[in-house]
């Protein structure tokens, strides 16, 4: 059984490979990377490394030759080639290469999600469904690491603002999502859809968790309107377009798109998720 992981030099991909190697022989693990030089520095030398970019469908097909199970880690939006086109290249190449099963890192509740951030994932899920390949959608909610600026602010006793209202977000550590992805790849009979996320929490809840984790009580996270949130970012020197994107993410959170009421993540991991206070301390210690 040959296993391939795309975007393998990223933090997520590195964790997946490390987890796979606990069970799978290095000769059966294939890392698909854009930059072989980086791969030589960050990946085990015992595995196979194949070069291919999401913008190069023929190279992807060649890199996926002989692969039985493939973890497709979604690309980062905003590139010269659209994420939809990149993902179409990957799916087309996987099917042409004869890949038997594909696990895709998708977006929380992608079947009902409405936010702009979910659009490419909805598109990719449909591509994979229509391809005829066996699949699992790993619908990851939100990395707690995405909120590092809030964690650091609280740890330093500094106030912060948010525009997500009472919306709840299913935070979990990136490494927990990555280990779960590896475990799904190894399952004999994986589900078609996994809704991965931690216990849903609002920003107010997160602030209280930071206080418990740090022992500080000299800061507050204040709820503001989306317009006030964006204006504050711009006043702080942020580009208006980026401020708009971040404002959109806050609206997505307010709409509870990242509120996942599922125990799939803990079930696949085989143990409870890291307690939020411990997870906060882990991130702050990096």
From TrEMBL:
Matching entries from Pfam families are given as: NAD_binding_10 (PF13460)
Q: Which domain of life is it from?
A: Bacteria
Q: Which Gene3D superfamilies match?
A: NAD(P)-binding Rossmann-like Domain, UDP-galactose 4-epimerase, domain 1
The NAD(P)-binding domain sits at 8-159
The secretion signal range is none
What's the protein called, per UniProt?
Nucleoside-diphosphate-sugar epimerase
* Organism per entry: Lactiplantibacillus xiangfangensis
Recite the lineage of the species: Bacteria, Bacillati, Bacillota, Bacilli, Lactobacillales
């Amino acid at each position: 059984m040959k296993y391939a992981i795309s975007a393998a030099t990223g933090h997520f991909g590195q964790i997946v490979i490390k987890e796979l190697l606990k069970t799978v022989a290095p000769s059966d693990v294939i890392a698909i990377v854009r930059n072989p030089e980086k791969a030589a520095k960050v990946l085990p030398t015992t595995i196979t490394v194949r070069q291919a970019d999401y913008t190069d469908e023929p190279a992807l097909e060649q890199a996926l030759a002989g692969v039985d199970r493939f973890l497709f880690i979604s690309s980062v939006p905003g590139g010269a080639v659209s994420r939809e086109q990149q993902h179409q290249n990957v799916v087309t190449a996987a099917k042409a290469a004869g890949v038997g099963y594909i696990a895709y890192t998708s977006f929380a509740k992608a079947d009902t999600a409405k936010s702009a951030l979910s659009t490419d994932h909805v598109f990719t899920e449909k591509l994979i469904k229509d391809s005829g390949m066996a699949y699992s959608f790993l619908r990851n909610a939100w990395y707690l690491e995405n909120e590092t600026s809030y964690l650091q602010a609280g740890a330093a006793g500094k106030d912060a603002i948010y525009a997500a209202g009472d919306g709840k977000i299913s935070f979990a550590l990136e490494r927990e999502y990555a280990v779960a992805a590896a475990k799904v790849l190894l399952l004999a009979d994986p589900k078609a859809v996994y809704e991965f996320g931690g216990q849903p929490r609002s920003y107010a809840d997160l602030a209280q968790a930071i206080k418990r984790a740090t022992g500080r009580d000299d800061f507050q996270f204040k709820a503001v309107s989306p317009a006030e949130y964006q204006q504050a970012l711009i006043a702080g020197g942020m580009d208006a377009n980026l401020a708009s994107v971040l404002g959109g993410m806050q609206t997505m959170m307010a709409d509870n798109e990242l509120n996942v009421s599922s125990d799939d993540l803990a079930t696949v991991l085989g143990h409870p998720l890291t307690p939020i206070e411990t997870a906060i301390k882990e991130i702050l210690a990096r």
